[in-house]
Amino acid sequence: INFVLRPKITTNSSSSSVVTWPPTQFDVIIEIKATDASGKVVWQDTVIGKGKAEYSEFKADFSLSAKRASEAALLELQNKLLSSALM
User: Fold this and answer.
1) d(CA 11, CA 78)
2) For residues 80 and 7, is the Cβ–Cβ distance under 8 A?
3) Cys staple from 58: which of 1, 40, 41, 64, with CB 3.0 to 4.6 Å?
4) The pLDDT value given to residue 54
5) Nearest Cα to 13, choosing from 5, 22, 4?
């Protein structure tokens, strides 16, 4: 093992409607650190994925805004990892 990746994942959600409980806006924040075998941090970054879904979209899938935010965050994290000095 060359590196250990240590993510910290935080979420925030809100809705523009007082009538519906599924969030219309969802954020996924991933703070990630890579350490070497000795535990020294050799790389770190933060990505934020934002997802939005309106009632007409999420009435069949209550987690749609969260799925969109998660996908956006993971794609951004992948790009940052691939362009980092770790690769």
Assistant:
1) 19
2) no
3) 64
4) 87
5) 22
Given this model, what pLDDT does residue 2 score? 87
What residues contact residue 51 under an 8 Å CB cut-off, 6+ apart? Answer: 25, 26, 27, 28, 64, 65, 66, 67, 68, 69, 70, 71, 72
Q: For residue 19, how many other CB atoms are within 10 A of its CB?
A: 6
Tokens of 63: 């987690």
**Gyration radius of the chain's alpha carbons:** 16
Are 51 and 26 in contact, with CB atoms under 8 Å apart?
yes
Q: What single-letter DSSP state applies at residue 72?
A: H
Do 43 and 85 touch, CB atoms closer than 8 A?
yes
Smallest Cα–Cα separation from 65: which of 55, 54, 51? 51
pLDDT value at residue 5: 94
